[in-house]
Structures are given as structure tokens and as C-alpha cells.
Request: fold
Amino acid sequence: MSHNVIEFDEQCKACKGTGLYFGLAEKDGAAVICQICKGTGCRHVKIEYDDFEGRKTTEKCERVFETNPGIVIGRNKEEFELSDFGGMFYKEWVRGLPFPAKSENRKFICPAWWYQSADYYKKPDWNDKDRKCIFTGSFSKCDYFKRKNECWERWDREYGNGK
Ligand SMILES: [Zn+2]
Reply:
């Protein structure tokens, strides 16, 4: 990997290279020195970066999730495995595979909550005799949240492309 350093002097943008600042309180040709360049009119710029040579892999990751709208994801004693929160194996994601159907965090999050951050165009906003999305500051306060498995079933029918 190659490390690069670029250094150059640029004309101070704040004072357009004059080294001077004309504020509202400086009148009749009065000026104070530019605080950005200390009156020199010049700003030294140093940029350091490493060349991109492909995405790196990591040993740290086991499972990848498309998004996380705000639930702690982790193993919890005997109760939860990472797969309980949806997602896909890191080793499959590395190979370039897409997120499979039903890889949302369906156990803890409803369709509207999930797709608000994952893909706004797939966010349902149901308001009919069967179901009404009620957002009052928190998705989990919706009347249907406890039955969100039914919301996911409906979401599958309307947005899931038959998967
Ligand atoms: Zn300046």
C-alpha cells in the first residue's frame, strides 16, 4: 500500500489572499489581520492518504446487518444469537451476495421502523381497516407493534416481490 503526502500553499480563502479582514465594525478603510492565515494571505495545506487497493477484510466481523434503527445487537446469554437480529454471514457478504429475503430485524423491529432507515421507498404507511401505522414518537408504541409479525406478513405480500 502506498502512502501519499500532498503539500501545497493555497491562497487564504477567508481573506482572498489579502491577509486582511474587513468586518462590520471596521469602517473607512480600516482592517484587522485575517485570523485564519494570521495576515499572511497564505494557508499551508497538508493532505495524507493511503491508496485504495480494494476493500479489506476483518477478523472482527461475524455477521453483517443492512442497517440498525437502534436495537442493541449481540449475543445475550442463552437467549439470543446474532442471527435472531436478521442480517447475513460476513463471509457471504464479502463474496458480494445480497441480503437475503427476510434478513431484516423482524423479531424486534416493525416494517415501518426498519425501512425508514434501510429504504424509505419500502416503508409502509398503512391506514386502512386492516392496519394503521401509528407513530407517536416511537414505533414500538404503535398499537400493532406487539403483532408486528402480521405487519411483516403483509409487508412481504406488498413489498417483498413474492420472495
Ligand atoms: Zn487569510
User: Anything to note?
Assistant: Strands lie at 3-11, 20-21, 32-33, 42-50, 63-64, 88-89.
